[in-house]
C-alpha cells in the first residue's frame, strides 16, 4: 500500500474502510473544545459500545420484574448466562466452545491456572517469564513459586532483550527453552507484550516448550481482540485474558480463560473447586461429592456477575457485527502501518518506535520514546493530552499509542502525528 502524508489521503482511507461505520457504535469521549478526543488508549481501557447500556438495562429490568426467577426467564436467563459468551470468546482466541469460559478476573485466573498447571518437582520447578512482565503477572508467579516452597531466585527464569535492544528476540527465547527446558515446569509469556507491543510467536513457543515437556500458558491481556490466534490448534495448555482492554467490556469486567480440551478429562490435575464447576445436571442436588464438568467450565467457582457478563455480550455482539477478529486484524494492520509511516515521515529523528516492524510481530499498539535531546517524554505526553489526545504513559519512558480498528480512523492517526510534532516543537 502506497501511503501519503496528507489529511486528504487519511480521509480517503476512512472513506474506503469497510468497517468505518463501526465508530458510530461507540461513545467517543469529548475533549474540552467539544470535539471528539483522539482516543488512542483502547489497549488500556476500551471505549463503551452503544449496545452496552441496553444490554445492562435489560438485566436490571429482569431483576426488577422477576427477582430470583430471572435465573430462568427472559431471552438470556442468568443460570446459563456465561454460555452466551462462549461462541464469541472461542472465535476470538481460536478455540473449541468447550475450551473457553468467562470467569473471575485476569490475575485470579492466572493463579487458578497455575494451581492446575504449575506442578513443580525437585528436578523441574522453574517458570519462564519475561524480566519486564506486567507486575501482576510477576507477583502471581513469584507467589506461586514460594507457595510451593521454592526460591524465586532459583525457580524464576526472567528473559530479557539483549543489551541495547528493546524487545526479546524469538531465537533467544527458543534457545533458553532448548537449553533449560528440562528444568522448566511452566512457560508463561504474554501473547502481546504490554510495554513494547511486541507479539510473541505463540505457536512456535508452545511447540518448543512441549518438546521439552513444559506446560505452556499465555497471558492474552493485550492479545484478545487485537490479534488472530489459534490456541486449540497450537495446543496451548491454558490462557487468560481481561475484557476491558481491546474487548471494551468496562473497567474491571469479568475475564476470560482457555483450557485446552486435552486436559478436560484428566482427573489427576489438581484444581481449586467451586460449585459452578460442578456438573450442571446435578449442581442443585447440593451434594458433597464434586463432579467436575468436562470443559473449561469446570474451573469456574462462583455464579458470575451478570451485569458484567452483559457488558461482555454487548461487546462480543459489536465485534461480530464488524465481521469478527479477522476483519479487525486486517484493518488494524493497515491502520498501524499508516501510523508508523506518518511517524517516520514526520518525526523519524525525534521519535523512536520500540514495537517490532516485521510481519506478525506487532498488533494495534506502537510504543514510542522521545529521542529529541533536552525534551522529557513525560512533558511531551502531557502536551499531547492537553491537545486532545488520550494515549498512555508507562514508566520509565514510553508513550503507548493504540489505533483500535473498531473505533479509530486514519484521520485520528494523521491528527495525532501532527499534534505530536507540534508538541515536540513547543
Ligand atoms: C492489564 C493487565 C493485567 C491486569 O490484571 P487484572 O487482574 O485484570 O487487574 C495483568 N497482566 C497483564 C499482562 C495486563 O496487560
Written description of the protein model:
The protein has 426 residues and is α/β, with parallel strands linked by helices. It has two domains: 7-36 and 324-425, Aspartate Aminotransferase, domain 1 (Alpha-Beta Complex); 57-320, Type I PLP-dependent aspartate aminotransferase-like (Major domain) (Aspartate Aminotransferase, domain 2, 3-Layer(aba) Sandwich), CATH 3.40.640.10. Helix content is 36%, strand content 12%. The chain has 13 helices and 13 strands. The protein has a seven-stranded mixed sheet, with helices on both faces. The chain is globular. The protein binds pyridoxal-5'-phosphate.
The global form is: globular
Low-confidence stretches: none
Mean pLDDT: 96
β-strand percent reads 5-15%
Classification by helices and strands: alpha/beta
The N- to C-terminal Cα distance equals 33 Å
The hetero molecules present are: pyridoxal-5'-phosphate
Number of spatially distinct domains? 2
The radius of gyration is 22 Å
Count of distinct strands = 13
